[in-house]
Write a structure and sequence with these properties.
By secondary structure, the protein is mainly β. The protein contains 1 helix and 7 strands.
């Protein structure tokens, strides 16, 4: 008997995540996160004074709003990132620590490159998510 990915409810602009059951005892990720573009990384020391930066306050609010929608009725607090400045470049990933009922949960936001828009996903407790890119 094989199990395929469960269908997730439609997400805005086709972005979403899917839970994929894992069979066997191999320590494989059990959550697949789909993004319309690849994640990229940057060095904060490479950001110059003239670089276009995303508003981290707006991104933090998007992360907290996502946490509230995924955990209705839970006490949501925090929303901290290690970065203080982030370029407005498509695919830049930002990790966020959010308190949900006094338990720390990690969220990741991916910069779309359009205004302050980001795609936000909650990571599983063990961090075992696999990112799949639709490029």
């Amino acid at each position: 008997m094989s199990a395929g990915p469960e269908e997730a409810p439609p997400s805005p602009r086709g972005w979403g995540f899917y839970f994929v059951p894992v069979q066997g005892s191999a320590p494989e990720p059990n959550v697949m996160i789909r993004l319309p573009f690849a994640l990229t990384y940057f060095q904060p020391s490479q950001i110059g004074p003239d670089d276009d930066l995303i508003d981290l306050g707006a991104v933090r609010q998007a992360v907290l709003d996502t946490a509230r929608s995924l955990h209705p009725g839970a006490a949501i607090e925090g929303g901290e990132s290690v970065f203080r400045r982030v370029p407005r470049q498509q695919g830049v990933g930002i990790s966020w620590l959010v308190g949900i009922d006094r338990e720390t949960t990690t969220f990741v936001s991916a910069v779309t490159g359009i205004g302050n828009e980001v795609i936000v996903h909650e990571l599983p407790e063990d961090g075992s998510a696999t990112f799949v890119f639709d490029e």
